[in-house]
Amino acid sequence: MPRTPTAEALAEAVLRGERRALARLITRVENRTTDAQDALATLHPHTGHAYVVGVTGAPGTGKSTLVNVLTRALRERGQTVGIIAVDPTSPFSGGAVLGDRIRMGDLVGDRGVFIRSMANRGSLGGLAATTGDVARVLDAAGFDVVVIETVGAGQSEVEIAGTAHTTLVVEAPGLGDDVQAIKAGILEIADVLVVNKADRPGVEHTVRALQAMLSLGHRLRTVGHHGQRMAVEETSAPPEYDFWDVPIVQTVAISGEGIAELVDALERHRAYLRQSGDWHARERARVTAELRARLQETLWERLLEERGAEALSAAVEQVLARELAPQQAVRALLNGR
Amino acid sequence: MSESKIRVLIAKPGLDGHDRGAKVIARALRDAGMEVIYTGLRQTPEMIAEAALQEDVDVVGLSILSGAHMALVPRVKQLLEAEGLGDVLLLVGGIIPDEDVPKLRELGVSAVFGPGTNTQEIVEHIRAALQRETS
Ligand SMILES: Nc1nc2c(ncn2[C@@H]2O[C@H](COP(=O)(O)OP(=O)(O)OP(=O)(O)O)[C@@H](O)[C@H]2O)c(=O)[nH]1
Ligand SMILES: [Mg+2]
Predict the structure, then answer these.
(1) Pick among 3.10.180.10, 3.90.950.10, 3.40.50.300, 3.30.360.10: CATH of A47-276
(2) Chain A interface, mutation test: which of B30, B48, B83, B123, most A Cβ atoms within 10 Å?
């Protein structure tokens, strides 16, 4: 292969199973080069095989350690695993220290595993803007499972739910009173709740608090309905729907305790997604959201290109001078006046 | 839209259990706008080469305090070459006797940085070697 192969050539090599090409193509995708977009198009027909699992939760709850043992367990069941571990970019320098691999030492030397660290490059939501694309590259490369570890999340980092088939929310005892670290927003995206560090004191308390939260304000269960993912009250839902009861699984990631139960919970959720139609509903919702975002970006760029940045600033001035209402300014820009 | 970052793997091969220096370098490179993959203590040469491949790094920095550099560095270099990563910029930091520095350079190490090196010097070396002004 030439020293600087085209992204297209890299995509072909990825389909042949070449790991270095896979790593290099991921870099192009992260950098959003123009030729990477063509390579993604080449790979698209080869995607759709991988089961995508998201792992999110507050900083230090043990997400990376959990990914390490979970991957080992999946490998024992014969599945190959691609891992994406996202850490934050420093807003001051644009650089990042990516440290999730430290916990994944057990996976070294196994060609059925590929680990890639990503900086979020300023994206909010717990992922990088290109994490979904990188997951698709790993999918096309043939990995059975793609595991995505998000940035240590507080509450608004819920983008993973739109990317993964199954989202694990990881909690640990001793992070503060009454599961403070787990905010409502993040609880709602959980398909499986993991209470890690179950060797620590206070684990019963954490489990009870989560149970209470699940059965109180959050007794919402998701169902697939006309291609929409929606939450319904238990009592108001028609009985013919398949329900998913969010399980709480206790684990000790440093010893591997509880991991078999976690893998079982994942398999049950995967089967549920298939049976309920929620698998396709989630894929459809994801593609809809993606097309919408890409269209918005493209239309915005096209408008700027056609009208020029000056036209936009002129419109801003007119709105500030009260000559035009914002609505009128938009119409004028669209009509090219 | 397109932006590229210098990607650096900082690894600590060998058995000494002390990584303060490596962490200081990792942070300094981050502050210079680079993306630094930090892999922690007691990395084998095999682990380092595999991480360098998967992470598609431009630079591998080895922090070695144990005195085992003349065994570890050639092995890392050899494995990198076997993976097709011969072009990756290889740096060594730590306690390296003066007489070993030319030997390491001959092995393909781009620079050796002793304790107390100004981190800015390392940043500048990387940028110059990769011929990229900005990160
Ligand atoms: N006691 C105990 N410690 C654990 C367990 N799981 C992880 N740890 C420790 O918790 C610390 C943090 O673990 P990580 O896996 O790095 O946590 P993380 O959620 O990935 O952290 P960030 O990526 O920084 O958000 C490490 O020191 C782990 O060894 C566990 O089950 N029990
Ligand atoms: Mg982590």
Answers:
(1) 3.40.50.300
(2) B30
